[in-house]
Structure formats: structure tokens, C-alpha cells
Design goal:
CATH class: Mainly Alpha
Mean pLDDT: 89
Largest sheet: 3 strands, antiparallel
CATH superfamily: Winged helix-like DNA-binding domain superfamily/Winged helix DNA-binding domain
Number of helices: 5
Number of domains: 1
CATH topology: Arc Repressor Mutant, subunit A
Structural class: alpha+beta
Number of strands: 3
Length: 113
């Protein structure tokens, strides 16, 4: 699998509010399922399913400490992705002044939807 397809698969996988929240917490450091249960309003079994999916694509991994599985981020791509998700874009990009090919026409601005 090439790197672009891998990133596309990662984007598809993390496009879920619970997974984004889990990854955001893991970006702060190692967490076990009970740590994640404290701030997510999701059952432990559901959290474990999300963690399993993230681990399957090697975005995260874990180590065992006694009876606990301690999860951590493995993919540096996720840190960049989380920064983009947090970023606020107050304005849209400006529309083009004309068609770049014909050099005619103008962008009318707001359109009705």
C-alpha cells in the first residue's frame, strides 16, 4: 500500500467523534481504558472497540502493566492531523477574479443553496 492510500485509510478511520477524542487524549500521554472512560460518555466495551480499530491500523499501540493495557500514540501523522482539526478558520478563501483559462467571467460571490 502506498503512503497516500495509507493516509486516506487513516482519515476514514479517525473520522469519528469518539476516536478523535481518544486520539486527542493519547496525544497528551499514555492512557488506559479506565482513564478514557472518565472523560468519554461511552461504555468501556465501546472504547475498547475503538481502541482495537485504531491499533489494527498501527495508529496506536499498548503495553501491559499488571492487569492494565496502557495505550499510546504511534503515528506522528496523528499529531499533525489533530492540530489541523483544532484550528479555526474564520474566513473562506477568496473566489477567483476570472476563469484562469479564458480570462473571462467573474465569480458572482454568494450563491443560493
Amino acid at each position: 500500500m502506498n503512503i497516500l492510500n495509507l493516509k486516506i485509510d487513516i482519515l476514514k478511520l479517525v473520522a469519528h467523534p469518539v476516536r478523535i477524542a481518544i486520539l486527542n487524549e493519547l496525544s497528551k500521554g499514555v492512557k488506559c481504558v479506565s482513564d478514557l472512560e472518565e472523560f468519554l460518555e461511552v461504555r468501556q466495551s465501546n472504547i475498547s472497540q475503538h481502541l482495537s480499530a485504531l491499533r489494527h491500523t498501527e495508529i496506536i499501540d499498548y503495553f501491559i502493566d499488571g492487569r492494565l493495557r496502557c495505550y499510546f500514540l504511534k503515528s506522528p501523522f496523528i499529531l499533525d492531523l489533530l492540530e489541523i482539526v483544532k484550528k479555526d478558520y474564520p474566513e473562506e478563501l477568496p473566489g477567483p477574479e476570472c476563469c484562469p483559462v479564458t480570462k473571462k467571467g467573474t465569480y458572482p460571490g454568494d450563491r443560493r443553496k
